[in-house]
TrEMBL record:
PANTHER family: AGAP008170-PA, LUMICAN-LIKE. The gene is zgc:113307. InterPro entries: Leu-rich_rpt, Leu-rich_rpt_typical-subtyp, LRR_dom_sf, LRRNT, SLRP. Residues 61-96 form the LRRNT domain. Keywords: Glycoprotein, Leucine-rich repeat, Repeat, Signal. PROSITE patterns: LRR (PS51450). This is Lumican-like. SUPFAM superfamilies: L domain-like. The lineage of its organism: Eukaryota, Metazoa, Chordata, Craniata, Vertebrata.
Amino acid sequence: MAFLCCAMLVMLMGFGSANATEELDYGGIPLWINRLQGEPTVMSLQGRLDPVWFRSNNPRSCPQLCDCPIQWPTALYCDHRGLTNVPDNLPNRTQYLFLQANNITSLSSSALANITALHWLILDNNQLQSNQLEQNSLQNHTHLHYFFANNNHLTSVPSALPVGLKQLRLAHNQISSISPGAFKNLKNLTLLLLQGNRLQTLTEGDFTGLGSLNLLDLSGNLFSAVPRHLPPSVQQLYLSNNSLTGLDEDSFEGLLDLKYLRMSHCGLQNPNVHRQVFNFSSLVELDLSYNKLTTVPRVPTTLQYFYLEANAIQEFNVTSFCREVGPLSYSRIKILRLDGNKMSYQQLPPDWVFCLRVLQRIYI
């Protein structure tokens, strides 16, 4: 079954031209497909089969501007059509609606009124604007699990989102604010993509209600410090490509389950990074590549993957990885990247192998 899931991932992300691949990025996080639940295994039918074939082999009604493959009777493909509005008279059997790569600017409450069991709504690469997104256009779709609106013109996170939402992908918009109470009922949301927007600060109530959030991507925004008031359930936090002025000892306070932290391209420098900021035992993977660090920050012995390439590191200090070395006192690091720094393999101290005794690969 694991092999089958991987095959689904490759099929989704690995076909078509370079432009098509960019359009099918879906916010940079792969989309896993559960074929046993009838989820469609392709996100677009463009260039696959002649639409005439679909119509001649499917007795069910289908909007003129869409394709309705017989393989997935609940999927409706209306992508890459130059549409400026959601088509009328959508079949009420529709559960998976693909509208990406059009010119849709608005979403009215009546556009999806006929669909009562919608599970996925894919609106990436359109022209959606916040002031043309009616507040209750999505709220009543309690079965909606995935809402994708990457690469649009939204300026705020929509309010009145459906309570059953599990993934919300709003990457590469123009979002500078979160509507009050936008997430208050989203207790099932596990993934939130907000990278490539214009967020500068977050207030205490912005993420209220997100009790199950696992992955939060805030990369490529305008933060100058690590945002406070993040959901304590977050295990994967991505903050790369923000111009951070520094890191305090309590920058990640309250994130007791944080395992994967990405902070590449943030302009970090040692004088402004507290030596204990990363020293929390839940951390498994830490990416600090492409910064301006001159020494290795102190990390917990539980860390397994550490990326420090393309900094200005000149020395290797064993105490950054092990406060002491003994039969049970050693670093669990498996992969360590130090390539692109100002040091060579010959500069490693002789006792480093006792600390990094389970290391599988080092790049230097």
